[in-house]
Task: inverse folding
């Protein structure tokens, strides 16, 4: 009987050791490989998009390059859509996610988040002659969102009855829908709406109300504690050194505001 119990305990211990050994990649693995794979926005200017020279440019792209430089490794940029960010991290297609990603309790069940590295807010934008001052006024309106984003989650949970949410696969499709009149209201990030307005000077669009303040965080796979700690030190260092403020002024047209730390 004792031998049976002992054997069972040893089996449990062995299984636990095996699980720990195969759990997650480590910071040391990235350093040894000499390369870090970073998920960045596929089409979400000014955080990340394909530039005129055929290379990705934007706030998140510059942060990703700084991460690799400080680590002393090469960077492999992996463009992703909003819905791909967490799955790519969970399945080891990328080491970290720098893709204008907001943090919430639901996402935190799947991945870890760093301290915030960029400012961002979600808002409702529409023509000047549309009377909208709150979520309640979205009733009876066609509202365009990018599927899987915080805007989508927020409106799905708290939007009024009678509001028609139309989800699009990426931001480009969402913006195109607003330009073509498929939707009455565009719900997206402030920087996206600002870029849309800058690209279309004659477009009638204005901010109606802020839905949610949602600064951007870097995503790290669960279990990568030393990588998470390094990323947080990196963010602190770039805040204190002024590099993130310079990026904010360059890409977002504003000084870096106070950002939350986790």
Result:
């Amino acid at each position: 009987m004792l031998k049976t119990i002992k054997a069972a305990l040893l089996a449990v211990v062995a299984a636990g050791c095996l699980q720990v050994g195969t759990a997650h990649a480590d910071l040391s693995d990235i350093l040894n490989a000499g390369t870090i794979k970073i998920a960045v926005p596929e089409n979400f200017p000014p955080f990340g998009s394909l530039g005129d020279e055929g290379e990705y440019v934007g706030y998140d792209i510059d942060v990703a390059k700084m991460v690799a430089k400080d680590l002393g490794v090469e960077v492999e940029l992996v463009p992703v859509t909003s819905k791909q960010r967490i799955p790519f991290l969970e399945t080891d297609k990328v080491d970290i996610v720098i893709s204008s990603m907001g943090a919430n309790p639901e996402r935190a069940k799947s991945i870890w988040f760093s301290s915030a590295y960029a400012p961002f807010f979600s808002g409702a934008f529409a023509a000047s002659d549309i009377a909208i001052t709150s979520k309640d006024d979205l009733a009876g309106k066609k509202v365009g969102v990018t599927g899987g984003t915080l805007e989508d989650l927020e409106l799905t949970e708290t939007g009024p009855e009678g509001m028609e949410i139309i989800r699009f696969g990426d931001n480009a499709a969402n913006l195109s829908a607003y330009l073509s009149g498929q939707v009455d209201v565009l719900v997206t990030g402030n920087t996206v709406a600002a870029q849309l307005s800058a690209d279309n000077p004659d477009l009638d669009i204005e901010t109606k109300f802020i839905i949610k303040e949602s600064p951007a965080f870097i995503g790290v796979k669960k279990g990568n504690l030393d990588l998470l700690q390094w990323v947080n030190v990196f963010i602190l260092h770039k805040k204190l050194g002024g590099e993130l403020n310079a990026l904010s002024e360059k890409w977002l047209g504003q000084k870096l505001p106070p950002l939350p730390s986790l």
In short: The two ends are 50 Å apart (CA to CA). Residues 2-21 form the longest helix (20 residues). Residues 79 and 218 are 15 Å apart (CA to CA). The chain has nine helices and twelve strands.
